[in-house]
Design a protein that fits this description.
GO terms for molecular function: ATP binding; metal ion binding; polyphosphate kinase activity. Residues 184-367 form the Polyphosphate kinase middle domain. The chain has 750 residues and is an alpha/beta fold. It folds into three domains: 180-377, polyphosphate kinase like; 396-564, Endonuclease Chain A (Endonuclease, Chain A), CATH 3.30.870; 569-745, Endonuclease, Chain A, CATH 3.30.870.10. Helices cover 35% and strands 19% of the residues. The protein contains 21 helices and 27 strands. Strands 14, 18, 19, 20, 21, 23, 24, 25, 26 and 27 form a ten-stranded mixed beta sheet that branches. It is globular.
Length: 750
């Protein structure tokens, strides 16, 4: 039988003990364990039978603001994380990618607690409780989050310990338990501890002169139970050992102490094995890993910013790591009295405690992908496609002057976007470049091109959204670099995040000035363009160029709302125009004309948008919603949403395109956008939606939407009770949207 890794939380003095459940698991095959782990649907919230009474009412008697018609936003978010976790169980994914999905789930849950759970706790702490459209009080939501999250975390570690680790061991990738270290391995680890860990680790004994250390958000720590008196006669019994962030959480053993394959040990195992060396002369009774999650949402008060948003943000960034406590993860064999002491120290309740059956912070297991060279256990690589005319043209400007181009990443290359800026930086005919940046990186190819353009004397103006969550420091560095190069940098609008993705290049061509435009649904980040599905649109359409110019005028200067002709612009026109187009489909349906709506976004929560879709469904409009993440709309309710289907696609790539399709009485309207169907996008951000006017391109978008609607392999269908069910294809009828797109677009000349 393949060897399974030890729990990182194993106590040095009791490693020989065997748990009865673990022994039973080891007697089962991986396949048998996998059958046990078939996911049971998790409803968004307990369904009260009285809630179903709404289906007994006449449509005209139904109040579309009724809380029964809305799922809770946070619980829907948690459901998305559950769907990500389930990818680790999908044998269609290579085993290292299944491990990657476990890591992504861990990272997603971190952010969920740092932002969403922290926000609910803050509401309660400051007496600002506010029920959402679903009518649930934040206290009730927190309790349901705790119930579901505990189940998901237990499932996560069961999948890791009983499925993924054994699968990796079958491929000679092993995580070696210290209880089975050979003499050579133990000697090598001892030297590693002496040379690399001991010199930089700083244990803190707890006594009146050594108060509990201030632990930063998500840092890796150990609580150590001690016995005896130290050299000063102190006898307190507990110490904290913070693991320096500079130390790798996984250490690969050299080949000369192993018998083939890739063999790794956890840092926690190394520290556990040598904890006594941190406290010479004391007896170590137990060593237990733990991790504290804090509120990490930046709250920059717009009234106190004055004229220096960057300065205010830098100040706030310093305190991000020490927000209020929201979650404690700790080894599941930690004694109760120590757990209680830590909960009291961090002012947390029992529902905030997560006992961990393995290494805390599984996202750090991503290091495995770099430590082992096993491309055979990962998705096969592919070459992104590039349209023939774009590839063979004499330059990006010549190509775009001839026609519009629509690219879908990662199946098609992101390089034309970078090339467009790089050519503009060098082209003597280009006189000005304007761009919005949300997440891109201070040293990215996009940033390099903008710096070069500024140094070459172009008028470069960049709108950087400093408050892109968790990228604030990177964006501050980018702003400084661009300013040093001579670019004009502005930070958008204080109370409205700039989320629109726009490039405007002004080029002198003869006596005229021509505007070249890029509009996108995703970020200007080349790495994300290989992992996220997003559209890029390249055009020199005069009216779209004029519209983009006007949007930049509003962002960089001060003016009244400027009218735009073709773009939909949040927070001014986007929401209302979407509502108009939905209502028009409803009117067409009532008149007996065919009506159809397809919306593909990451999340749908805006109440007026949901209510408009309900009304369209009541009018007979056939509506398909492809919502990757949060969806508060409840489908399948008789008399309200029986014409609405909702699906979520989770696969190799993160679905990120935003598409709004309306049949429009046989003259389809297709808009692509940076905006999701959320209140923050439609009402509190600067966003744009842009039309795809070319018939061939709009038909192509519709075809690609149909791929998602026909997906029966990676498609999760939202039920009226709030649970999601994975589509089950018939044998031999497997259809996967991402695979179909790859076949159509990747490395494909057109």
């Amino acid at each position: 039988m393949s060897e399974q890794p030890e729990k990182e939380n194993e106590v040095a003095q009791s490693s020989a003990s065997t748990n009865e459940d673990t022994a039973q698991n080891e007697a089962k095959t991986i396949e048998e364990i996998a059958e046990e782990l078939v996911l049971e649907p998790i409803p968004e919230q307990p369904i009260d039978p009285s809630r179903l009474a709404i289906e007994e009412r006449l449509p005209e008697d139904i109040d579309l603001s009724d809380p029964e018609l809305f799922f809770n936003r946070e619980l829907s978010h948690l459901q998305f994380n559950a769907r990500v976790l389930e990818q680790a169980m999908d044998e269609n994914h290579p085993v290292l990618n299944r491990l990657m999905f476990l890591c992504i789930f861990s990272s997603n849950m971190d952010e969920f607690f740092e932002i969403r759970v922290a926000g609910l706790k803050s509401q309660i702490e400051y007496g600002r409780e506010k029920n959402g459209p679903d009518g649930m009080h934040p206290r009730k939501v927190l309790q349901l989050i705790s119930d579901h999250a505990h189940k998901l975390v237990r499932r996560q570690y069961r999948i890791l310990n009983d499925i993924i680790f054994p699968k990796l061991a079958e491929e000679n990738i092993r995580f070696i338990r210290r209880s089975v270290w050979t003499e050579k391995q133990a000697a090598w680890v001892k030297r590693y501890f002496r040379d690399n860990v001991l010199p930089i680790i700083s244990p803190v004994g707890l006594d009146p002169a050594h108060p509990f250390p201030r632990l930063a958000n998500k840092t890796f720590n150990f609580v150590v139970e001690l016995e005896g008196r130290d050299a000063f006669g102190r006898e307190n019994g507990l110490a904290i050992v913070p693991a320096p962030s500079s130390l790798p959480r996984l250490v690969k053993l050299p080949d000369d102490v192993c018998e083939g394959g890739d063999n790794m040990v956890f840092l926690s195992s190394i520290i556990h094995a040598h904890a006594d060396q941190l406290f010479p002369g004391m007896t170590v009774k137990g060593c237990f890993q733990f991790r504290l999650t804090r509120n990490a949402d930046l709250e920059v008060d717009s009234d106190d910013i004055g004229l220096d948003l960057a300065g205010a943000l830098r100040t706030e960034l310093q305190s991000r790591h020490y927000g209020s406590s929201v979650r404690l993860e700790i080894a599941d064999n930690c004694p109760a009295h120590i757990v209680d002491a830590l909960l009291a120290q961090f002012d947390l309740a029992e529902q905030d405690l997560y006992c961990i059956d393995g290494p805390v912070n599984l996202s750090r297991l991503m290091a495995v992908l770099e430590l082992v060279d096993r491309s055979d256990l990962m998705y096969p690589p592919f070459s992104p496609g590039l349209p023939n005319k774009l590839a063979k043209s004499g330059g990006i400007f010549e190509a775009v002057r001839q026609r519009d181009y629509l690219l879908m990443h990662p199946f098609e290359s992101f390089s034309p976007v970078v090339d467009m800026l790089s050519e503009a930086a060098k082209d003597p005919h280009v006189i000005a470049i304007r761009q919005t940046l949300y997440r891109t990186g201070a040293r990215s190819p996009i940033a390099n091109a903008l710096v070069e353009a500024a140094r070459n004397g172009k008028e470069v103006t960049v709108v950087i959204e400093l408050r892109a969550r968790f990228d604030e420091a990177e964006n501050l560095a980018l702003a400084s670099r661009l300013q040093d190069a001579g670019a004009i940098v502005v930070y958008g609008v204080v109370r409205h995040k700039t989320h629109a993705k726009m490039i405007l290049i002004v080029r002198r061509e003869g006596p005229d000035l021509t505007r070249y435009v890029h509009l996108g649904t995703g970020n200007y980040h080349a790495g994300n363009a290989r992992l996220y599905t997003d559209y890029s649109f390249l055009t020199c359409d005069k009216e779209i160029g004029d519209d983009v110019h006007r949007v930049f005028q509003q962002l960089t200067g001060m003016s009244k709302e400027l009218k735009v002709k073709k773009l939909l612009h949040a927070p001014f026109t986007l929401r209302d125009r979407l509502l108009d187009m939905i209502n028009k489909e409803a009117e067409n349906a009532r008149n007996g004309d065919p009506a159809r709506i397809i919306i593909k976004v990451n999340s749908l929560t805006e109440q007026r948008l949901v209510q408009a879709l309900y009304k369209a469904s009541q009018a007979g409009v056939k509506i398909d919603l492809i919502i990757r993440g949060i969806c508060t709309l409840r489908p399948g309710i008789k008399g309200v949403s029986s014409n609405i289907r909702v699906r979520s696609i989770i696969g190799r790539f993160l679905e990120h395109t935003r598409v709004y399709y309306f049949y429009n009485n046989r003259v389809p309207m297709v808009y692509l956008s940076s905006a999701d169907g959320m209140d923050r996008n439609l009402n509190n951000r600067v966003e744009v939606a842009f039309p795809i006017q070319d018939f061939k391109l709009s038909r192509r978008v519709k075809k690609e939407l149909e791929y998602y609607l026909k997906d029966n392999t990676q498609s999760w269908l939202l039920q009226s009770d709030g649970s999601y069910q994975l589509a089950k294809p018939r044998k031999g009828e497997y259809r996967t949207a991402q695979r179909a797109l790859m076949n159509d677009l990747a490395d494909n000349s057109r």
